[in-house]
């Protein structure tokens, strides 16, 4: 059990990378989903048009985010229809240290290297190879899939889905979905973590009010999924919002800090210094 517990943070990072089991929409279906959710989006407790849901499944965990972004669909297409760009997106997360996009035989792959804690050396990272596929790309719709069949510590079937449709000339509606499967060992390790070191961590869903009037947020496994889902949604938004790596890092960290109760981990300078050092190592000659 000791090995499971020491490796648990790897699983926590991976929980944010997997995709939902629900079927993707067509362009018309996604626009219909926006119409159904428009009132909820306008009244979101996140104080912006973003809806976050999570669920525990018999085989693993699932999370979904629906959001309106202030970007035209043309910009969404340009940002997310390339495996190279997805490396730029994923590397904004503090635990993601290396990423390589490759193509062979008509298949595209995005290989991500993740450390169990941000302060661990990249040599300790494990690899997660995603098969990248643009399933649909039309003037009014984009659908992208990333899938990894297996991961460490008994996890498997990682899936990422991003789909988007145009609302008007300046706005798009996004659906970001993820899921992954886990065996009994992983489920037990997660529960052990949440009962000890992770006992104070919470998600975003409000279950009521505390005695002092502050929100009572969901905790446990669903809280874990919600934190990770939000981190990765904010990487998408940060990548869209700026044109340089440094500006995107600044944007991601600023977005994270809007939710300190759930997402704060390190100070800004620590995060930026880590990402700059990683970038220098990636570009240094062998």
Give a quick precis of the structure.
The chain is α+β, with helices and mostly antiparallel strands and 286 residues long. The chain has helices at residues 2-15, 27-42, 73-80, 83-90, 184-195, 220-241, 245-256, 260-263, 268-283; strands spanning 50-56, 60-69, 96-104, 107-114, 126-138, 141-150, 155-166, 172-182, 206-209, 215-217. The strands form 2 sheets. It has an 8-stranded antiparallel beta sheet with strand order 1-2-8-7-6-5-4-3, sandwiched between helices. The protein has a two-stranded antiparallel ribbon with strand order 9-10.
Secondary-structure topology with pairs:
Layout: H1 2-15, H2 27-42, E1 50-56, E2 60-69, H3 73-80, H4 83-90, E3 96-104, E4 107-114, E5 126-138, E6 141-150, E7 155-166, E8 172-182, H5 184-195, E9 206-209, E10 215-217, H6 220-241, H7 245-256, H8 260-263, H9 268-283
Antiparallel strand pairs: 1-2, 2-8, 3-4, 4-5, 5-6, 6-7, 7-8, 9-10
Helix pairs in contact: 1-5, 6-7, 7-9
